[in-house]
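I'll show a sample.
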Amino acid sequence: MAKTLILHGSSGDLSQRQILPALLILHKTGQLNSMKIIALAMEPWDTDTFASKMWEAMLAKNSVPKGYTESDWLDFVQEKVLYMNLNLEVSDEKQVA
């Protein structure tokens, strides 16, 4: 049975320093199996932009796991991650009075 992890605040500091590096390690060591990850944040990005921005942030914060490369990261994102913009301050729905 496939499982899905929904990661709220996926572009935030905790994700950059701890969660995303840990998920990368779990993926590379085969421990995520068929799990998919839906990464939610307020930035109006697509999955490729998310991957690029988070790699840059992890490099800047020295949180890339030792021995892991950008290629490892991109493989992980391509196989496991779907980024979705979740901005609750903007609504396309019309208010009903």
Notes: The CA atoms of residues 55 and 70 lie 7 Å apart. The beta strands are 4-8, 36-41, 81-85. Residues 16-85 form one domain.
